[in-house]
Design brief:
Keywords: Oxidoreductase. There is one protein chain. Helix 1 crosses helix 7, helix 3 packs parallel to helix 4 and helix 4 runs parallel beside helix 5. A six-stranded parallel beta sheet has the order 3-2-1-4-5-6, with helices on both faces. It has seven helices and six strands; from the N terminus they run βαβαβαβαβαβαα. The chain has one domain: NAD(P)-binding Rossmann-like Domain (Rossmann fold, 3-Layer(aba) Sandwich). The protein is of the alpha/beta class.
Length: 224
C-alpha cells in the first residue's frame, strides 16, 4: 500500500472496512458508502468479485482498496489490521457481513464439516476481528455495524441458526460493554432481500416481493 499522500485518493476521506464485501448486502453497502465519499477497504475471498465491485465504485466516482483475504486466517487479519493502522491510523466504520450459510438440513443429519466451517467463520472469525478492529475504531471514534438474522430454533436451520445466534450474543455483549467507552456498536436487522444467500435458503420464494439490496443498504446507512 502506498503512503504517498499526494497520490493516495483515500486521503481526506472517511474510511470504512467492509468484511464480506464482494456481493450481497456487503457489496451494496460498500457501493453506497463510496458514492457518499467514503474510501472503502473491501475484504472478501473472491478476487474477481472484488474487482467487479471496484469497477462499480470507480464508475460512480468512488475509491476503494481491495483485500482478497480470508477472514478466518488469523495471520491475514492481523496483517490487515496492522496495515490499516499504519496507512490510515484508524477506522471510521467497520461493516461486518462475512457469513457462512450452511445448507439447510434436519438437525439429526448435521454435516460435521459444515458445522466446523460455520463456527470458524461466524463465531471464531468474528471474535478475532473484534479484538483487532476495536483499537482502530477507538482511534477515530468509529462505529461497528453488524446484522442479525434470527433463525435459532427454526426447523432445518440448526447449523446456521446456532452459529448466527452465537455471533449475535458476542456482538451484543460487545455492544453493552462499549456504550460509555466506545466504539459504538450498531446491530441492524435487514428486511428480506433478493440475495444469493436467501435464495439458497428459500429457492422457491417469489423474489419480486423481496427488498432490493441497494435500497436496503441505503435505508440502513441512513439510520446511522
Amino acid at each position: 500500500m502506498s503512503t504517498d499522500q499526494t497520490q493516495d485518493p483515500s486521503q481526506g476521506k472517511k474510511l470504512a472496512l467492509v468484511t464480506g464485501a464482494s456481493r450481497g448486502l456487503g457489496g451494496a453497502i460498500a457501493e453506497a458508502l463510496a458514492e457518499d465519499g467514503w474510501h472503502i477497504m473491501a475484504v472478501a475471498r473472491t478476487t474477481g468479485a472484488l474487482e467487479e465491485l471496484d469497477d462499480r465504485i470507480q464508475a460512480k466516482g468512488g475509491t476503494a482498496s481491495l483485500g482478497p483475504l480470508d477472514v478466518t486466517d488469523p495471520d491475514q487479519m492481523a496483517h490487515l489490521a496492522q496495515s490499516i493502522g499504519a496507512r490510515w491510523g484508524g477506522l471510521d466504520l467497520w461493516v461486518h457481513t462475512a457469513i457462512h450459510a450452511a445448507p439447510l438440513s434436519p438437525t439429526g443429519h448435521i454435516d460435521a464439516k459444515e458445522l466446523a466451517n460455520s463456527v470458524k467463520v461466524n463465531v471464531n472469525a468474528t471474535a478475532q476481528l473484534i479484538g483487532l478492529i476495536e483499537p482502530l475504531l477507538l482511534a477515530r471514534q468509529g462505529t461497528a455495524l453488524a446484522f442479525d438474522d434470527p433463525r435459532a430454533g427454526q426447523k432445518f436451520f440448526g447449523i446456521y441458526g446456532a452459529t448466527k445466534a452465537a455471533q449475535m450474543a458476542m456482538l451484543r455483549s460487545w455492544q453493552a460493554e462499549t456504550v460509555k467507552i466506545g466504539p459504538r456498536v450498531v446491530i441492524a436487522e435487514p428486511a428480506p432481500m433478493a440475495t444469493a444467500l436467501r435464495g439458497r435458503f428459500f429457492p422457491g420464494e417469489d423474489r419480486d416481493a423481496l427488498a432490493d439490496r441497494h435500497a436496503e443498504a441505503r435505508r440502513i446507512l441512513d439510520t446511522l
